[in-house]
Every structure is written in C-alpha cells, then in structure tokens.
C-alpha cells in the first residue's frame, strides 16, 4: 500500500507527487498516456497545448529557474490583422498580443524536468484508473491489470474527465458529481493548429503574426516561432467542431489571404484536436461552457471522507486555465494530503 496515489502526470500531478515525496511520503503517480505532461504537449519544439506564462505567475517562474529551462519573450512587434466579412484590415501596434514568455524547448520541458527528478518507481505510465472506492480506512484504485491501495488520493485530471472515465461506486455526493460533470475542460473543445515555415516571413512585412478572425477557420492567430525567429511558425485556435474535410486547405487559404503567398505552403501543418484526446476530454466536452465552475469551492474540499483531493488547472482557486493554476492546484493538494495524514496520525 502507498501513502498516496496521484492520478495524472500533468503539471499538477507531477507537482503534487514531487512535493509529497519531498515530505517523505511513499507517493506514486499513475498516468493513462505513455508520456508525461498532459496538455503540456510539444512536438518538434512546437507547443500543441499550453504555450505561455505571464508576469506575476511566480510558480512557473520559480519552476523554470529551478529546472534551468530557458525562456524568451513572445514576439509581438509589428502590426496585427483583423479579418471579418468586409475583408482584412491591418492595425498598427498589435493590440492583440500582450507581454508573455515562452519556453525555449517547449512547455513539455516543465513536465519532463519534474518527472526526471522522480525515481523511476514513482511513475507508472499507460496505467488508466478505471475505479475508485473506499475500503475501510484506505482507498482502492482499479486499473486494467491491478488494484492499488493508498491512504490518500490526488485526482490530477479535469473533473469532467474523471467522472466520465472512473467509476466512483457512488462515492461522490450528488452535488459534487453534478458540478464535476458540468465543469469545462481547459482547451478541451478546441483544436490548435501550427503552420511551420522556413522563415518568419511576416516579420519582414512589419507584421507581428497576430490576428483575429470573425470568419475562420482559425479565430485567433499568433507567432509561434522560436527564439530569434528559429523554428518559424504561426499558430491558431479553432473550435474542434470546425474540423471537417478540407479543413487544412481552408487554413492555408486563410493564412495566405492574411499574410501573403509565402503562407500557402507550410513545411508542416500540425493539427491538435484536444476534443479527441481520450485522456483530456470526455464525450460532449463542447457542451460544457460554464467557466464559473473553475476553482469552485467544492474543489477546495476533499471528497471520499477526506481521502480524495482535487488538483488540476480547472480546480485551481486562481489562475485557472493557466500552467500557474495547475502548479497551484498541485501544491495545494499536497498540503491537504499532509494535513489529512497528520490529523489521522495525531
């Protein structure tokens, strides 16, 4: 039996696991995917999930300093573009982007750095949890191949995903279950598209790479090039429901109208549909739109008779939807576990 089982090896789960093991507890982290990071997903240096952090987000700043992850400023110099049914307009000074920071090797470097500091036995990949129930003074967690037992559990996945994929054996009260089912999943209903080029050609035209479109398919576009324009790229968001046959051609046509003929042939076009990610989004994720449920007070209190603690960016009491919120939720859950165990021992 473990002291704690943490479900989910995203930013929150890895933060909680690290803190609990630092406190001397036997904590293990189980992850349904075959990689760590969750929505900190990076491919070939391009972020397909979380991308930025901002001034005042001291947990992320402290983490990148501790891990030695290089950061750089989001490129935002030049003019912005707005596209609507009347055409395309250019706006001087880029009123779209704000000062933000990017991660040199990509956001997944945060998760990889946290995971590297854990012993190999503390991480179990490709291990989805299918059931959780109280058994006396302990919690039993079911996976496809075994049953795990723990004194405490940290649930570091979106609440709506948890209640859709895990059988709690009627252990959650009706009000909590209803709120969890209704809580939106950050990025869950969107697709992120990254168009990669040999050079950031838009910059030579005095464009920032920032755009807003009311006609689509991409609704919001930003420069995703690496430091000094390396790994040149533009990225945008679109509702996942817009992913239909011909979508990629429509994207390149839109980018060509906005940024010129050089945009017509990206070297690579990455399309990350988060709504189709089984271990991020539950069925019907696009129907969950009440963002007032982010950080709800019910998530600040444990469930299952004080043995289950919530920890993900959706449950964070501040900076919900940001990496900062995930780190806060992980730290908070670790403190709650320590308090619960001290109370029971006392």
Summarize the structure in short:
The protein has helices at residues 11-22, 58-67, 108-116, 159-165, 174-182, 201-204, 247-259, 323-345, and strands spanning 2-7, 27-30, 42-43, 46-47, 52-53, 71-73, 79-84, 87-91, 101-103, 123-124, 129-135, 138-143, 147-155, 190-196, 207-213, 220-223, 233-239, 268-273, 308-310. It is an alpha/beta fold.
Account of the protein in words:
The chain has two domains: 221 residues, FAD/NAD(P)-binding domain (3-Layer(bba) Sandwich); 117 residues, Polyamine Oxidase, Chain A, domain 2. With 346 residues, it is of the alpha/beta class. The model has no long low-confidence stretch (mean pLDDT 96). The two termini are 20 Å apart.
**Helix share, percent:** 25-40%
Top-tier CATH class of the largest domain: Alpha Beta
What kind of oligomer do you see?
single chain
What's the order of the H and E elements? EHEEEEHEEEEHEEEEHHEHEEEHEEH
Number of strands: 19
Spans of at least 5 consecutive residues whose pLDDT stays below 50 are: none
- Quickly give the structural class: alpha/beta
Using the alpha-carbon principal axes, give the shape: elongated
Outline the biggest β-sheet.
7 strands, mixed
Task: Break the fold down into its secondary structure elements and pairings.
Blueprint: E1 2-7, H1 11-22, E2 27-30, E3 42-43, E4 46-47, E5 52-53, H2 58-67, E6 71-73, E7 79-84, E8 87-91, E9 101-103, H3 108-116, E10 123-124, E11 129-135, E12 138-143, E13 147-155, H4 159-165, H5 174-182, E14 190-196, H6 201-204, E15 207-213, E16 220-223, E17 233-239, H7 247-259, E18 268-273, E19 308-310, H8 323-345
Parallel strand pairs: 1-2, 1-13, 2-10, 7-15, 13-19
Antiparallel strand pairs: 3-4, 5-9, 6-9, 7-8, 11-12, 12-13, 14-17, 14-18, 15-16, 16-17
Helix pairs in contact: 1-3, 1-8, 4-5
